[in-house]
Task: structure prediction
Amino acid sequence: MMTRLSILFVFAISFPPLHAQYKVVGYIPNTLDVTLDFDKITHLNLAFENPDAEGNLTFSKWNEKYIRQAHACDRKVLVSIGGGTASEDVVLRSRYFTLISDANRKEFVRKICAYLTVHRLDGLDVDLEGSSINEDYGKFIETLSDTLKSMGMLLTAALTHANGGDKVPVEAIRRFDFINIMAYDNTGPWNPDRPGQHASFEYAVTSLDYWVSRGLPKSKAVLGVPFYGYGFGRDFNNGISYAQIVSTYTGAEKNDVSGDRIYYNGLVTMRRKVAHVVNGDYGGIMIWQLAQDATGTKSLLLAIDQVVHNK
Result:
């Protein structure tokens, strides 16, 4: 006869905690030297490293610290290539187009994989978006996928349906281990005549629905949330961290707008988004970016962790 302790043990291994299936992916600009709470994330994305004309990726001096700390906590670390600058910078965008072309793709992928091995990384995150997605993108992803899977490494992407998502081939979508869905920047300082929430709950739902409709399994759909806001009116800005918002405006953590039309996600909206992901059996939550969070009870990462762990 099984003892009560034995029954509890069997139950525990048969029914893992609810949160075990969800990813919490945090980006960190690797130009920053900050302390991270690895207990509350599952994956760390180092942003960004980009290639020279020969296809050799740069390596930030802070990367080694983050890789060492993450692995000590049994967390996965990926390097992210591209970023918003890859689509805005004419030279960098052109360089990517050359490197992923038929003539150069195989060698570029070889250099990427060697880089991942040398630096003990767990995979690659491809953040090519908007105008930096061309007709060779799909073939680039397929070649990467074939090679990285043979090495036991992850391949992910950061994508938005509102900026080039329609140019991503269905076959490429199927190749990713998961996609970090950038459900933010629906408006901003580049659009001063359209003030409002850049990352509403409704926009998050629309973003998830789009990628699932393109064939992405829900388990691979990771919802991106912002730890920053944009201001309009007298408080116009090009981006302000959540930490700065809550330190400037009393009670801001309970709202989604403060000051003169500064829009962001407060604790209530953040919890609502995470609950939608958990209850809908989506893949998890992605954060841009960890260094913008507040501390203590106002922390958005803490709020995410509490919902995922049903605290």
